[in-house]
């Protein structure tokens, strides 16, 4: 085979694609190692697996920051005869490569080492229910994140540099504004719902085997097939793509409630995003979801906007009755069942929070993280600040660190800037949903028949197929004509809960 | 952390170990990708997985042939203050690196490409039952193997260079001598057994679920535990190591016979070799089985020398009766059952062959491969030669290519030099077994109690722990005091079948 002519744009592009293919292969190998670690690996394999993941990560970083790659990207960035898709790909890769090059290897190694130490400290602190045991590790993490932020001196706010790891074109300022509006809408809404009295409870039990049957049927209705997907068990459910033709989704089930099937809808939502990326982007680094916030919008859309809607359950409620029996559903009819799966309870634990209160947990973490990075809050005062904010936002007293400041492992990973993406997902999902309902007037009828094809095609067309060719902001504007905006989410919640609980706006 | 001093032997060794760790991590990632491909991957993932495996293989090859690695190996090879284990490790890696460097990248790429083409041709030829459709692809493979052999001009025979990919210190001449002796002993023995009349048959059925229970129990008695092993289903059973603390074994079951449990014993035998390598060799390239022949000796030892012995079944036969019932075993007592699982039937298909006739299938392939490489046999005449040899060695007529020359996929992979390792495994296993029986006089009592610990410890001490620190020949001499020798295998077979069938020697 003749080698590509490296002096032409087409030849340079071919050389670039070879390098991107290699990077994507390393990512694939790494993702597989991670998937296996959480689903299949015998416990004895953990130490060796850690080394493998570190090596694959280091090789990928070396290849992304290779000056030869930079030279190719520079040459193509200046080329005038590049098609639009290729130009977007080159720009996206150049952004990633630039970010990777700006962080010194020494700092990456320091962060990796600190992450290992901090996890041990977090586990010890949590077991002892004593934040003080985690404090030194977190202080060092905050310090290292400060060094990381300093690698991007052009950022308007030190927290921007962290946020940009997950949301490349959002600013701290914008998130602050949007979250303020969100908080202002949510707090009174949740109070009104509480005043309407407690919703019905579903007594269960929901045997695990029946839940798996239900979850598998719903997954198929969302687009799951055996040719391109797997659904396995994992302690912490997640979705992972090994290329758009091999999507791995995981779940766990607990017979006391229906978290399992909702978690499957959520993860299939993530998986479908990866599954529907344009196959032309295979074996590049841009053939994947563009940001965590957009990714979360896809999972939340299926979990909440589809999966907690009346239309959806018109189809699936009879199947629930068949599988679990009327007693497990507490004798509820469809309306009662909907009130139950849309129950709102302010609670201490984020991962157990409902659709309405969830974002408040995120806002709490965002405000604390920003203050830590600004230096207006010391790690020493974090637990007190956490408890005060919990009272302010959720109206709850925190009895212990375990169910408060030590509940999530994310800070042990040093992952500041990550939490906001969860609430951004809720916000974006509602923005998309508003447009989808306008574009697909027959959507409720589809859902009531167990049909989702038109919805999936809409998502493919407006979000999924583009991979990373557009920034999250461009993608959102392209699909909805708007920037990040909390109002559609607040409107959706108010409308839904008003109908369910008879609130008066 | 201070960097190692690269001017000292200890410092150079540390740098070498980092590089070997990286190579081992790539092998681990690659093995995992292969394991997943055969056990878990949805079919849609195949194309992307092929790319990932190619990239990981290419990166490992680049790193093994890196001049900086050669320089480290040269410096350490000349160092006088290296301990014996490290010196052996350096020598073993240097041999691998030398072999890898001697084959030009162009030839590796040609072979890889031809392997893809030849597999397609083989599948088509097999479906059409027409060797002519595979002939051109195999001709090209033989040509490329000739080029490969030419990279090692010091070899006494062109086939040596191929054999050395799997058995680093065996020669074609030696294999020819040993196989000639083996053939001379096997052909009359098999004739005598046939004259003794047909053995009892086990009518079955053997439900798959019960076989899985039996196989899992036997596996545990061989050393399987949930902390370090997995046992999964695969179309073609295999064992794979992801480091000595993560061993993956696979199997398949067919309710018409007991191939499944015997295949599990075989694969656990492979797995145990990897499991018992000295942990000090972790994250090097020498912490794995040293050759395919030695590996196969471990699997055959458990499958045949343990797994078809009277002592073993004194423990497990009652459990068989419990699981499958007396009717499935055709009402045989222990003696009858042993005759049945030690039945000898010359047959056309290698993978279905019994302990006695199996090696003849291998000798047939070895003789044909050597003639192809010597140029004394043309691919055009291969089918005729195959059929003649089948008549000579097994006394059978070959009705069609599908059950003759096209039965195995190995030649489509271009893998000449690989088949002999299967018979070498049988031979080595019997050589080891002779010494083991002398060293462990209580072995039969152990097996009759379902106990294998002393046996496993013997194998760890004499074979497993050494990884690749000794060549196969050194290892065999160290454990048995002898070179490769067919006589113990022939003696074992004659003694066993004489007892079972009342042959007169």
TrEMBL record, chains A, B:
It holds the Pfam family Peptidase_M32. It catalyses: Release of a C-terminal amino acid with broad specificity, except for -Pro. Keywords: Carboxypeptidase, Hydrolase, Metal-binding, Metalloprotease, Protease. The keyword Hydrolase applies. PANTHER family: CARBOXYPEPTIDASE 1, METAL-DEPENDENT CARBOXYPEPTIDASE. Broad specificity carboxypetidase that releases amino acids sequentially from the C-terminus, including neutral, aromatic, polar and basic residues. This is Metal-dependent carboxypeptidase. It comes from Paraconexibacter antarcticus.
């Amino acid at each position: 085979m003749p080698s590509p002519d490296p002096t032409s744009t087409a030849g340079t592009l071919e050389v670039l694609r070879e390098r991107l293919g290699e990077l994507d292969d390393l990512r694939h190998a790494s993702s597989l190692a991670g998937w296996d670690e959480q689903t299949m690996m015998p416990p004895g394999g953990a130490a060796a697996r850690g080394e493998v993941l570190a090596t694959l990560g280091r090789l990928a970083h070396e290849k992304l920051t290779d000056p030869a790659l930079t030279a190719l990207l520079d040459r193509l960035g200046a080329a005038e005869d590049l098609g639009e898709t290729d130009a977007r790909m080159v720009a996206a890769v150049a952004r990633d490569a630039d970010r990777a090059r700006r962080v010194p290897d020494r700092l990456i190694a320091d962060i990796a080492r600190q992450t290992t130490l901090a996890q041990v400290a977090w586990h010890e602190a949590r077991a002892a229910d004593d934040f003080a045991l985690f404090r030194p590790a977190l202080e060092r993490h905050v310090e290292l994140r400060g060094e990381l932020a300093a690698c991007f001196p052009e950022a308007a706010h030190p927290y921007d540099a962290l946020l940009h790891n997950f949301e490349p074109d959002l600013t701290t300022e914008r998130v602050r504004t949007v979250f303020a509006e969100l908080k202002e809408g949510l707090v009174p809404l949740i109070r009104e719902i509480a005043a309407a009295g407690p919703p019905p409870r579903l007594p269960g039990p929901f045997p695990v085997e029946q839940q798996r049957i239900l979850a598998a049927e719903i997954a198929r209705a969302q687009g799951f097939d055996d040719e391109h997907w797997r659904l396995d068990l994992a302690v912490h459910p997640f979705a992972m793509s090994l290329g758009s033709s091999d999507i791995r989704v995981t779940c766990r089930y607990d017979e006391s409630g229906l978290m399992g099937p909702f978690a499957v809808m959520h993860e299939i939502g993530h998986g479908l995003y990866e599954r529907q990326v344009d196959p032309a982007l295979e074996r590049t680094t841009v053939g994947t979801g563009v940001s965590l916030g957009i990714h979360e919008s896809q999972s939340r859309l299926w979990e909440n906007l589809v999966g907690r809607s009346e239309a959806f359950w018109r189809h699936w409620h009879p199947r629930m009755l068949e599988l679990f029996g009327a007693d497990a559903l507490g004798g509820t009819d469809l309306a009662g069942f909907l009130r139950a799966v849309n129950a709102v309870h302010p609670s201490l634990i984020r991962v157990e929070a409902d659709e309405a209160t969830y974002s408040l947990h995120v806002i709490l973490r965002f405000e604390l993280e920003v203050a830590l990075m600004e230096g207006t809050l010391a790690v020493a005062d974090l637990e007190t600040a956490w408890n005060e904010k919990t009272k302010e936002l959720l109206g709850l007293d925190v009895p212990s660190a375990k169910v408060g400041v030590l509940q999530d492992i994310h800070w042990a990973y040093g992952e500041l800037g990550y939490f906001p993406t969860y609430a951004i997902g809720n916000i974006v999902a509602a923005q998309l949903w508003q447009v989808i309902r306008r574009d697909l007037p027959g959507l409720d009828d589809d859902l009531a028949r167990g049909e989702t094809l038109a919805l999936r095609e809409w998502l493919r067309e407006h979000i999924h197929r583009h991979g990373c060719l557009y920034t999250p902001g461009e993608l959102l504007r392209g699909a909805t004509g708007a920037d990040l905006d909390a109002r559609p989410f607040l409107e959706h919640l108010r409308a839904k809960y008003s109908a369910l609980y008879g609130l008066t706006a």
